[in-house]
Design goal:
The chain is of the alpha/beta class. The chain has four domains: about 5-150, Chitobiase, domain 2, CATH 3.30.379; about 155-485, TIM Barrel; about 490-565, Sandwich (Immunoglobulin-like), CATH 2.60.40; about 580-720, Sandwich (Jelly Rolls). Helix 1 (about 5-20) runs parallel beside helix 6, helix 7 packs parallel to helix 8 and helix 15 packs across helix 16. It is flat, with a radius of gyration of 30 Å. It binds zinc ion.
Length: about 725
């Protein structure tokens, strides 16, 4: 997908001007777990240095003010200008041995304008997208140079339709998020929400018009993004039994289960999931082909995504046409018909891969693989179908990638809400034969991603992804960023990792590049070329934030590493009078709806109370909807720094004296959270609060510290009560 260069650059510079005129820079509003420390330190950083998110993989801030115009582009291998030659020389030895890949670029913003050395047109556009993030008022632009290139070739986002009323938000998504993350494929699952001309009965009231889709086309072209429409075909018509979706509502004669009999082919759970159309229903496929042709025309796309995931109803006994048929043969015939239609029009076909995988043999089970007899279809379809192989959980291995590649298919691994799952899948498939890149899917309407990333105030840092639209959106953006530049690389490792210390702490800083010169500050400010140089470990005797960067001459790396150390004063013990072993507890019953967070127990009346030897839940009056508060003293053997890990299902909190040491609140599975506190030897007032809503209930407290080298459960002998 090579696009003309000029319009993108004009747009890039136009947006620069808007930024200079006072429009908020979207990059400043984003909230990225993976480099939060880099963009939002405790001390405010100059806007210019926060602007580049994600941070290009190589680059330096230079001294003095720069100018983004004029913008000059030269090609790798044909650099003639002195500025271009100097730029190439500045990165000598730091670029890939095989040269810059497609879309790669070098960029320098100098005093007299911006110089780009690009691999291709797309590389020049990527440079312009990076430049757009900088404040660009003439004379106020920071000077810098950047070298950047993608790890993966196809970096895609798949979204659900949010309707034409949300067009302004989708355009923001394209220009402000996808451009920033250097996404290059956008799969728009419009399904039947379009005002079709070819079959007026299928024209969706309030659906997209051709003109509105044209806005998407233009925005994607400007940002170097390949736009691909999708209709989910065959299965996944609507949701649940009550909603058969638009096609089967208008054309009930296409139903696979016309009389509503319980289908025999379903998920393991046996619940009704989604309707399917009958691939043997006369006229059905021809109608969908006509609709797909209209969409291809409106989207001006060279490819079409047919969906076809989670087809649980196929070859159903309830269908007079398909009864007794072979599911794999019926699926393969459908895929061949779609492929032939698209191929005749010169279009590439994409599909979800789950129905082509044997759920039992691969170990994937019956969602992201098939247990309903469709898997042998993998041997009956053309190899030029692009397989979007989706798996969302972190696994030890992903055999499907090799299976598809071995059969001759191009594979596009697809990830979703779990960042851990996304990283595991990407790591397992990166660089394998026939792997195209990564597709991040959000499974929420497109405009919600804009809201989550650009409109809602930044969320508090989260421990887990996967919860809610904000988490899903951040995971998708992080996946795209890492598909371009690889996972977070701490260019300077600052050790130790533990933030608290008692008397002093000795800090080391180790650069990834052994010969690099590190300069650092201890007050949270950004280090520059004149900051102290790191030559030997730094001893801290007071609290400090260590910020370090690599400096080459007067050039300061774009990457900054940071760690905060806090001097702790050990707490005096307060329980000398407690001589009875054990803990007191009080149990509370929640209202019928149950708690989702720890309540204010002080305002509630206990259901009953008693004593225990450790934090166990044996006293619980029922399996669900209750809370427990344990009180007493914990005795530590020596003065020092202790790490307590409180694990629970659902939420819990550990307090020593008035201090919250661990907050593990909220609804979750068994999960441990560590917390650190300095204590003097003796008995310290301890309180553990816990609540249980439904499902499993567990509570456990472990410690490590002076004399307790390896983390283990706090023994009963450490607990005392008044
Ligand atoms: Zn049928």
């Amino acid at each position: 997908m090579v696009r003309p260069l000029a319009p993108g650059l004009i747009l890039a510079l136009a947006v620069c001007a808007a930024t200079a005129a006072g429009t908020a820079n979207p990059a400043e509003k984003s909230d990225y777990d993976f480099n939060a420390a880099l963009i939002a330190g405790p001390v405010a950083q100059p806007a210019a240095r926060r602007a580049l998110v994600p941070i290009p993989r190589l680059g330096e801030w230079l001294e003095g003010a720069g100018s983004a115009t004029p913008f000059t582009v030269e090609r790798v291998g044909a650099v003639k200008s002195p500025a271009g030659k100097a730029l190439v020389k500045a990165f000598a030895g730091r670029l890939p041995a095989a040269g810059l890949p497609a879309e790669g670029y070098l960029l320098e913003v100098g005093a007299a304008g911006a110089v780009v050395v690009a691999k291709d047109d797309a590389g020049a556009l990527r440079a312009a997208q990076t430049l757009r993030q900088l404040p660009s008022e003439p004379g106020a632009c920071p000077r810098l140079r950047v070298a950047d290139w993608p790890d993966l070739k196809w970096r895609g986002l798949h979204v659900l339709d949010s309707g034409p009323d949300s067009l302004p938000r989708i355009l923001r998504l394209i220009h402000e998020v996808l451009a920033r993350e250097k996404c290059n494929v956008f799969i728009y699952e419009i399904d039947f929400n379009y005002r079709f001309d070819s079959h007026p009965e299928m024209a969706a009231p309030g659906g997209w018009t051709r003109t509105q889709v044209g806005e998407l086309v233009r925005a994607c072209a400007e940002e170097g993004i390949r736009l691909i429409p999708q209709i989910n075909c065959l299965g996944h018509q609507g949701w649940g039994r009550e909603d058969p979706g638009r096609l089967l509502t208008v054309h009930p004669e296409f139903e696979e289960i016309p009389d509503g009999k319980i289908p025999q082919t379903q998920t393991a759970s046996g619940d009704f999931y989604c309707h399917s159309w009958c691939p043997r229903a006369p006229g059905c496929h021809q109608l969908v082909f006509d609709l797909a042709d209209e969409l291809l025309d409106a989207f001006q796309s060279d490819a079409f995504h047919v969906g076809m995931d989670e087809v649980f109803i196929i070859a159903s006994d309830a269908c007079p046409r398909c009864k007794g048929g072979n599911p794999a043969e019926i699926l393969a015939k459908t895929l061949n018909e779609f492929h032939d239609h698209l191929k005749a029009k010169g279009r590439t076909m994409l599909m979800w891969g789950d129905r082509l995988l044997d759920g039992k043999a691969t170990g994937y089970g019956d969602w992201d693989a098939s247990t309903n007899g469709t898997a042998p279809a993998i041997n009956m379809i053309p190899k030029d179908i692009v397989i979007c192989d989706w798996h969302y959980d972190a696994r030890d291995s992903y055999p499907s990638v090799g299976i598809f590649a071995k059969k001759g298919f191009q594979v596009w691994p697809t990830v979703y809400s779990s960042l851990r799952g996304a990283r595991a899948f990407m790591a397992a498939s990166l660089g394998k034969p026939k792997v195209l890149g990564v597709l991040t899917s959000i499974w929420i309407p497109a405009d919600r991603m804009t809201v989550a990333l650009l409109e809602e105030p930044p969320a508090q840092p989260r421990r887990r992804h996967g919860g809610g639209e904000a988490g899903i959106s951040r995971t998708a953006a992080t996946g795209l960023a890492e598909a371009w530049g690889g996972p977070e690389k701490e260019r300077i490792a600052i050790r130790p990792e533990k933030p608290g210390f008692l008397d002093s702490v000795t800090v080391t800083m180790k650069p990834a590049d052994r010969d690099a010169v590190i300069r650092y500050t201890l007050d949270g400010s950004l280090p520059g070329a004149d900051s102290p140089r790191y030559t030997s470990p730094v001893r801290l005797e007071t609290s400090a934030t260590v910020t370090a960067t690599v400096v080459r001459g007067k050039a300061v790396s774009l990457w900054t590493a940071e760690r905060t150390y806090e001097k702790l004063v050990p707490r005096e013990p307060d329980g000398a009078a407690a001589v009875t072993p054990g803990l007191n507890w009080a149990v509370y019953l929640s209202p019928e709806a149950g708690w989702e967070r720890l309540p204010d127990f002080a305002k509630l009346t206990p259901d009953k109370s008693g004593t225990a030897t450790v934090f166990d839940l044996a006293m619980a009056p029922r399996a669900e909807n209750y809370g427990v508060v344990f009180t007493g003293f914990v005795e530590v053997p020596r003065d020092g720094l202790y790490v307590f890990t409180l694990s629970s299902d659902d939420g819990s909190r550990l307090m020593i004296g008035d201090q919250v040491v661990v907050n593990n609140d909220g609804l979750h599975q068994m999960e441990g959270v560590p917390g650190e506190i300095a204590l003097k030897a003796g008995k310290h007032a301890v309180k553990v609060l816990f609540f249980q809503k439904e499902g499993g209930a567990e509570l456990e407290l472990a410690w490590e510290g002076p004399g307790i080298k390896k983390r283990r459960e706090v023994p009963a002998s450490a607990f005392w009560r008044p």
